[in-house]
Amino acid sequence: MIEHDTKMDRYRRLMDISRDLASTLDLDRLLLRIIQAAKVITHAEETSILLYDDAAKQLYFQVATNQRTQMRGIVIPLEGSIAGWTVTNRQAVRITDVTKDERFFKNVAQSIGMETHTLMAVPLITKDKVVGVLEAINKANGSFTQDDEDLLSVLGAQAAVAIENTRLFQQSDLIAEFVHELRTPLASLSTATFLLLRPEISAEQSQQIIKNINSETQRLNTLATTFLDLARLESGRVQFTKTSFPLRPVFDECKGVMQSKADDNLVEIAIDIPNDLPNIDADRDKIKQVVLNFLSNAVKYNRPHGTVTLIARLTSANWEIAIADTGIGIPEDALPHLFEKFFRVKGSEHKAGGTGLGLSICKGIVQGHGGRIEVKSKAGEGTTFTVFLPRK
């Protein structure tokens, strides 16, 4: 009788959780709630979600209750893994001893130092589409039961719908903003082509119009590329490939890319990094993308004979990567909106063009590493962007 009451309590809790999931439209927050709920109802030590990219035919870790950020982005093979088997066969699986199962993918457990004994996995399926796998690892006492599998399967069905709805909401919102941003360059192209067809246009005027067409075409290409980057970040489809690397060469490469622009603007780029700084564990390409974006903005919005300094420090808790400039600064009322999509500081458009997506992408990359960004600025004096990445 006690067992029946306990089971009913778990189902009641599951109903409450399902209502909560339906009201969440932030993907990262949604995934975290799902794994926390899965841990509670299955009495597992750890739970995790792996998302499936059908276009790339890849399965990769996205979130886990143990908060090990290095798991995010780890690609799991479809063949030779329990999660891969779950996706391919669209069936739940319960394993009493993973060491005796040939499908167990040992690389993940070894890389993060987590011992796995018992495991249960259910596919996340909605409208006949597999969006991922929900896993429960190491039952607190004994092995996972059929009741555990039933509960996790019900949660998985609700979770799949919630994940897909959240993705669609984010994509529709982003597409609406993207289409709005397309209007200006498309209007410019339409006007330019109309003028080119006019018989009274001189050769010199035609050349200038062609240059404008080329400029607007490049702007459209950049906008499309950054839009896709952001869409993949917001939908959880970006994979982070973590390696150990020194920061100094990354700073040197970013400085090399921006040196010509800095020279044109009479801006000096300096690097402040200790010689004995150890390697950082992160996705090198994406960290470089973040540094380059901040450096580009610091050069664009600087003043003649100004300075931009790339700084790296290591504290007991965090890696700190800062980009400090002596530029025009950012108005205080604009600071809370800096990382919003397509946001541009009022009055800065004449200084430099842009998509208004760069800072949103930086935020997504840093959050994907389990970090955060801090901004300090004073109008007329300069701005400092600091990236905090957890040391462990």
Overview of the structural elements:
This protein is an alpha+beta fold and 392 residues long. 46% of the residues lie in helices and 21% in strands. Strands 3-2-1-6-5-4 form a six-stranded antiparallel beta sheet, sandwiched between helices. It has a five-stranded mixed beta sheet with strand order 8-10-11-13-12, with helices on one face. It starts with a helix and ends with a strand.
- Measured by DSSP, the beta-strand proportion falls in 15-25%
Q: What's the overall geometry?
A: globular
Q: What gap, in angstroms, lies between the N and C termini?
A: 46 Å
Question: Can you count the helices?
Answer: 9
Major sheet details: 6 strands, antiparallel
The Rg value, from CA coordinates, equals: 25 Å
Features:
392 residues, alpha+beta, 6-stranded antiparallel beta sheet, 5-stranded mixed beta sheet, 9 helices, 13 strands, 46% helix, 21% strand, globular, disordered N terminus
Topology of this structure?
Layout: H1 2-22, H2 27-42, E1 44-53, E2 58-64, E3 75-76, H3 82-89, E4 93-95, H4 106-112, E5 119-126, E6 129-139, H5 146-196, H6 203-234, E7 243-245, H7 247-264, E8 268-272, E9 280-282, H8 284-300, E10 307-314, E11 318-325, H9 358-368, E12 372-378, E13 382-390
Helix pairs in contact: 1-2, 1-5, 2-5, 5-6, 6-9, 7-8, 8-9
What's the gist of this structure?
46% of the residues lie in helices and 21% in strands. It has 392 residues and is of the alpha+beta class.
